[in-house]
Amino acid sequence: MDSEAPAPLVPGVRIRLLRRSDAAGLSKAYLRNRQHLAAWEPERDEAFFTPRHQLDIIRAKLAQHSVGQEVPWVLVNRDDPAYIVGAVTLTGIVRGPFLNANLGYWVDSSLNRRGIGAAAVRFATDNARTELGLHRVQAATLLHNEPSRKILKRAGFREIGVAPQYLKIAGRWQDHLLHQLLLHG
């Protein structure tokens, strides 16, 4: 996918690769969604919400992308491509006999329950299959994150088990339900 041209995702939303110029837009998006995302993400200090810190994160993500270990996309408003409304990322891409990536995503709270998360997950897994040639994509959800579990199930992911104290989310180590999607039967 051309990183300069956003592709249609769902009506009103497009998807494209992350750019260095997205720092201010990500800062605004995270500030808008601070409360919404707090229960699902690590604790964030005040610096995280600044354009400068977002630029540091973007640089790190793009460095990982340049060596084939990550693919970071942003979801943007169709009419204003600088207005970020979410993200989907394949991280920890491993080649060799594993051919695996981890999936993460979030959608602006004002756009929940419109199929955007599901479309973003399908986009990322299709890319993992066709562009990256991966065999498997893994995702993890908090046990009580029913909306995310439903999105993954609709996208064909299967629950494969619970990982105790898997990630430190909202300030404490929490169990996660692991999911996988096998891309090549």
Automatic annotation (TrEMBL):
Keywords: Acyltransferase, Transferase. Signal peptide: none annotated. GO terms for molecular function: protein-N-terminal-alanine acetyltransferase activity. InterPro entries: Acyl_CoA_acyltransferase, GNAT_dom, N-acetyltransferase. Residues 13-184 form the N-acetyltransferase domain. It holds the Pfam family Acetyltransf_3. One of its GO terms (cellular component) is cytoplasm. It comes from the Bacteria. The keyword Transferase applies. PANTHER family: [RIBOSOMAL PROTEIN US5]-ALANINE N-ACETYLTRANSFERASE, GNAT FAMILY, PUTATIVE (AFU_ORTHOLOGUE AFUA_3G00765)-RELATED-RELATED. Belongs to the acetyltransferase family. RimJ subfamily. This is Acetyltransferase.
